[in-house]
Specification:
single chain, alpha/beta, 29% strand, globular, disordered N terminus
Length: 280
């Protein structure tokens, strides 16, 4: 269980059990101060006990945290390694794309923790009876990458999640107004009740694109508390907008950068994720 909270008005994330402290960009304390419903989580503080119910479906749930949005920044060194490769302007396109895909694998692993539907029972092993727990294939997880860079971050979703369905949304940002424009919508008219949805958007900069995508999913019957956002890099404007619009949302990101420039790019960021992934 990830259990380190960023207190509003302070500039560090402190683990309540280990004392580990992770400093945030200068703009983040202001974000926490003006939006007390937003909390930041980083690090691992102990283990979460599981209760396996034999021959039935069970899913662990994290505390609701009073409806406040949670931002998870996993501290895994491999995540830092792939982010470093992505940041380097000298990284060639094939390596950039591979780094983005590997980063997505790790972030999806973290985001799916204690969230996947499971079924428990007993099987016969070569040496005896064993209690087992499988991911329940009757409840597929929905993965929605936002084109086009989202395709790369979500590339390994089907390899780490045993039962998934993938839908696509295409959104571009108007360079003059910085407003999102939807050009592709391959979502169904209605999602099954109780669906769990990962929305994959590598760059959470101004927040317009991700807010538009979440609203499209909500219009089809999914509450935003059943949605998790996975991104490579996030910035305060996007996190603030998400917090205002979707209390209780969970966001998983590899790193939080301090600012967004006049063109809507995250600084220092990693450039245009789509262009660098596909070389166009």
């Amino acid at each position: 269980m990830l259990g380190c909270l960023h207190a509003a008005g302070h500039s560090a994330i402190a683990c309540r059990q280990t004392g580990d402290v992770r400093h945030l960009p200068p703009s983040m304390p202001r974000l926490g101060l003006f939006h007390p419903e937003l909390r930041f989580i980083s690090g691992r503080c102990g283990r979460r006990a599981k209760l396996a119910v034999r021959s039935s479906s069970a899913t662990d749930k994290k505390p609701a945290m009073d409806g406040r949005m949670l931002v998870f920044v996993p501290p895994h060194p491999l995540i830092k390694h792939w982010v470093s490769l992505l940041r380097n302007e000298q990284t060639p396109c094939p390596i950039f794309r591979n780094a983005m895909a590997e980063l997505g694998r790790l972030l999806l692993y973290e985001a799916s923790r204690d969230w996947l539907p499971t079924v428990s029972g007993e099987i016969q092993s070569p040496m005896g009876i064993a209690s087992v727990e499988f991911i329940d294939p009757r409840e597929p997880i929905l993965v929605i990458p936002i084109l086009r860079a989202g395709l790369v971050l979500a590339e390994y979703a089907s390899s780490i999640l045993p039962a998934t369905k993938t839908y696509h949304i295409g959104v571009y940002r108007d360079e003059a107004t910085l407003q999102p424009e939807v050009y592709l919508n391959k979502l169904p008219k209605k999602f099954p009740e109780g669906s769990r949805v990962f929305i994959i958007d590598p760059m959470l900069a101004t927040g317009g694109t991700i807010v538009a995508a979440i609203n499209l999913v909500k219009e089809r019957g999914v509450d935003h508390k059943q949605i998790k956002v996975v991104s490579a890099v996030a910035a305060p404007p996007a996190l603030q907008k998400l917090s205002e619009n979707f209390p209780g949302l969970h966001v998983y990101t590899a790193i939080i950068d301090p600012t967004v420039d006049e063109q809507g790019f995250i600084v220092p960021g990693l450039g245009d994720a789509g262009d660098r992934s596909f070389g166009t």
